[in-house]
Each structure stands twice: as C-alpha cells, then as structure tokens.
Amino acid sequence: MSLLPHQLELLSPARDADIGIEAVNHGADAVYIGGPAFGARASAGNDIRDIERLVKHAHRFNSRIFITLNTILRDDELEAAHKMAWQVYEAGADALIIQDMGLLEIDLPPIQLHASTQTDIRTPEKARFLQDAGLSQIVLARELTVQQIAAVHKALGPVDAPGRANIEFFIHGALCVAYSGQCNISHAQTGRSANRGDCSQACRLPYQVTDAQGRFIAHDKHVLSMKDNNQSDNLRALIDAGVRSFKIEGRYKDMGYVKNITAHYRTLLDEIIEEREAEGRPLSRSSSGRTTFTFTPDPLQNFNREFTDYFVTGRKEDIGAFDTPKNPGQAIGWVTKVGPDFVELEVSDPATVLHNGDGLCYYDLQKELVGMAINVAEPVSARVGKLITQWRVYPKDPMEGFKDLRKGTEINRNRDMDWVRTLEKKSSDRRIGLWAQLSETPTGFSLLLTDEDGNVGCAEVHQPHQPATDAAKAEASLREQLGRFGATIFAVHDIGLQLSQPWFVPASVLNALRRDALAHLEASRARNFARLPRATPVEPPALYPEDTLSFLGNVFNHKAHDFYVRHGVKVIAAAYEAHEEEGEVSLMITKHCVRFSMSLCPKQAKGVTGVQGTIKAEPLMLINGKEKLTLRFDCKPCEMHVVGKIKRQVLNQAKEAPLTFYKTRPHHAH
Asked: How far apart are CA 433 and CA 430, in angstroms?
C-alpha cells in the first residue's frame, strides 16, 4: 500500500520535467508523467535523464513520481516496454500506471503498479479483481457517483489490510465522453488508436443530429463534447466515499494550468485537513511540507469549456459544451462602438483592467465562438471615481473578419495577460518544517535539526566558548543567524538554545554549522525515503468477473491473452486494433445521453401529460461531412452506444501480424 488510510494524495499531471517540478513546488503529493514511450498521450514522452531530475526533486519532499505506461501493446512492443519499465525504475520512479495486462506476465522490476482509467473500472467486482491481481492504486471511471465509489471502497475490504488498493479519482480537467478505454471512433475513422495514445478527438467536432425519419434535431452542435470536470465542491463527499488520490487531468496542459490548478486543490485539501483535525477525524497529506502561493488560485483563469461535476452527485442536464469546444472565458462587458480598426467596450466591473495581449471572444449569431486577440488596449475617459469603465481595444486581425460584431454584443475574456505573467514568475514556496537546537559541547558547539518527518541532521564545530558582552543581544544574534533557512526547502518552527550562558559565536561559524547540519539532514531524508512496495497477487489467481471478453477488452498481445486465460476467461476476442471487427459495432460506450440532453429521454417524459408514451429511445444519427455514426440507447443501465464500422482505408493500412484469439465467435459477445 502506498497511502495510509488517513493520507490524501494530490496527483498532478506533467507534460515535461520542468512542469512536474513546479507541480511539486505548488503542493502536489505525486506527479504522473509520460516516460520515453507508451504513455496514452502520443506526443508527451520524456527522456530518462529528465525523469531522473524530476524524481530527485520530488523525493526531497516525499512526493512520488508515477510513469504512464498505459497504452495497449503489440507483441513486438513488449520487449521495449519491459526495457522502459526497468529504465524508469532505475531512475527512481515510484509506480507505473498501466492498462495492458500483458505487462503482468513479463519480468517487470519490483515497481508498484497502478490501474489506469483506461482499464474501465466501473464495478466493485472489476476493482476487486484488479486489487487481487496485484495493482496497488486504481483509477475509477469518471462517470461513477459518490454511492458507486463507496461501493467499490467497501468491496476492496478493510482499509488496513495488506495489499489493499487505494482509490484514485479524477477531480479536474477535460472529460473524455466515453468510458475511458471504451472508444474506438478515432481508430475506425482514421486508424489512429485512442488506446495507443493517438486519439483524433472526433467527440469535439460539430454534428447534425437526425432522428429515424431523417428529421433534424440539432444543427452543427458539438453533442459529444463535454464541459470540463470540476469537483471542488465534492471533495469532502469523495473523501468520505473512500477516495484517497485526487487526480488532475492534463498531461498536454501548460505550466500555468498545472501551477494554478495544483495550487487550487492544494488550498482546498489543506482546508479540509485542518477542519478534520479540529473535528478529531485526522487526515494528512501524503508528502511533506506546507505550500504558500504568491497568487490566489482561480480555475476560471485557465482554458476551460465551463465546468460540470459530471455524474458524481447524479445525472445533470447541463454536462455538455455543445456550442463550442473552445474556451469561452468570462463575461467582462459589452461593445459600445465598432470603429474602422478598433472596438470600444464598457466593462461591467470597473475593477477590470484590459492589457495588451489579452484574448477576448464573443458568440456570433450562429452561437460559434469568435476569438479577438488584442494588440493594444487603452482606457477611454469615462471613469467611476479613479476606475475606468470604457476601453478602446485594437485587435490584431482586420475588423472585417469579426462576424456579427456590433453594439451591444457581450464580450468575454479568455486570456488575461496580467495573470499569465504572474504565473510565469516564481509563484509558490514549499517548505518542510524543522526544529533546531544549539548545544554547547566541551570543545565547541553542536546543532541538531529535526524535521517534521522525524529525520535528523547534526553537525559539530570546535570553537572556544567566548562570553558575550551583551547577553540579550548575543542570544538574539544566535537565533537570527541560526534561523536563516531562506535559501533551503526548510522553515524553522523553533530554535532551542541549550547553553550555560549566551556565548559569542561568529556568524561565519554558525553559518557553517547550519550548512553542515542541513547537508546531514538532507542525506538522512534521502536515506530514509522508502520505495513503494509492489503488491503480491492473490494465489490461486482471482477469477475475472466475466468468462468472455469482447474486443472491448483491448487485448492486443499474446501475454495479455495469457493473463486473462490464467484468470479464468474462456473466450477472448482481439482488440479492435486487430481489425477483426469489420461490421457495425459499438465504437463508443458513454454515460452521456444525447436524448437526455435534448429532453427526448423516455424516462424524463414519464408522467408528463400529453408526452408520456410518445417518446421512444429510437436511434439517432450523427453526421459530420461524410462521417455518419448511429446513436443507440440502452436505457436500463442508462448508457449510449455510438455505433459505426471501420473504414475500408483503415483496414487496408499496412496490416500488422494478425491476432486471432478465438475461432468461433460466442453469440453473446457483441
């Protein structure tokens, strides 16, 4: 087990080592990052030397580094994945996040294993199976409710049992509309596999939606595009349901996003930890130190498609970002005049200041978002006291390109240059608490440093005991010199003086003493840092919850096939990427329901006079150019299937060695 039952882990994403280091500095207890290959973000790989550099920094604070090795692998990739697993282990990484069960059948290093969200964990049975198979942390499907999370927590058994897995849950960031690992639209249309880290994001496109009779229900709407996840208000409920690792999405995101969102959730979790301490229900963070910020975190300042808490507190009407997949920003005012090369605006809050380089936007009459980058922003004379309410902005692009821009148009800001610049500078300070004690020895002085984790560093110096001429001044000087930890990662809580009288000790001697004791303390911290244990799978091997795996099981190599056979699965289909499914199949399974979002759900219609019984869950069509997909509705579990078939040109792409795991297809596998 990596976390004790009372520990909370804030898990931040990193595209590269520099962003990972700032995530740690802004309070992350753990960071997940791509290794050199096989992470589910194709273009977010990192060199082993960078991983080493990040690990070294994180471990100073007892923060952990998790490496994403969460694509499905071909047989000819297993050796390279095996080699990479050993490389990142030797670089000091703390865990591998995996999707492909074939990895459990090869000689991996003794590194802790976490089940990626790509393993599609929706049920207590699946979660329990992965725990029994030796996975120490499991990322649940984002679609689960608090009650479903609590059921998984219960199924995993006593929290202090050996081998008990931790529950990890996404609390912020972009939402994949599919159950993760259950989407093959990208592969069917382009040959780019989402399971292999190369999703084409068909879900963010605009579609025409037609019914069974070909009538239009929606025109150019992004009906598969979700708002962004934000669980800020649900953290207490998630903790009580058993979540211990709180995951921020965003391995493609920039430094400013990671700093801001990490700081936001660090602040919220620290508040809860203090609150629970006062209530006698103690919780603690899983790494060391306290973090302070030079800014007030604000999730609205980053790219977002507006926010939803998705299904955590039950199904909601407004989870989709159907009008635009872009960042609409925050409303700041409206247009008062459109000039030949400028726009005049009135801001609704006089405290709003516009800057050169800000990004503004507005909706045109088709509800499409139009962006307007600002070259120059200057105040116009109208003022409220000393505050300006009227601004003139000169856009970078010519005015004729701004469709439907007129007096009265509401304007949003989606990039504030002042905010961007704040986060480009040093914006946090993370420090580990320590206590210092200066004692006299027969031949000089010793300094003992004890940090908040119980690590100790000490140093001694030979120095004559020289009485001070001014006792009070000497004591103050000793405390001041010894308390200078500004350039380190430590903050001193208290300085104890065990002296028979205040001695005069030169500043240079005290500085050397402090420096040596600190070096000893850092060495103790490094020596006492414990690697996370690898869980032992239960014996005999636990049975997989089902005895048949369709292509949705994402089995793409013979080692994964062997794993499932060992765990009692009788019939195993090859992954969709093996090109055995040439007909129409469920390319995506999602909890999002287009019928529900458009108030066409038969369950919604129940009991509505004049409507009851007239609305049926008939299929709908999605059309984007030449692409057509069918929506089918499985109302019992309240799920939607996006149905389609693989394109001929994808089938004709250079075929890899064929994979066939069964000869006759079982009639109940779809």
From this structure: 10
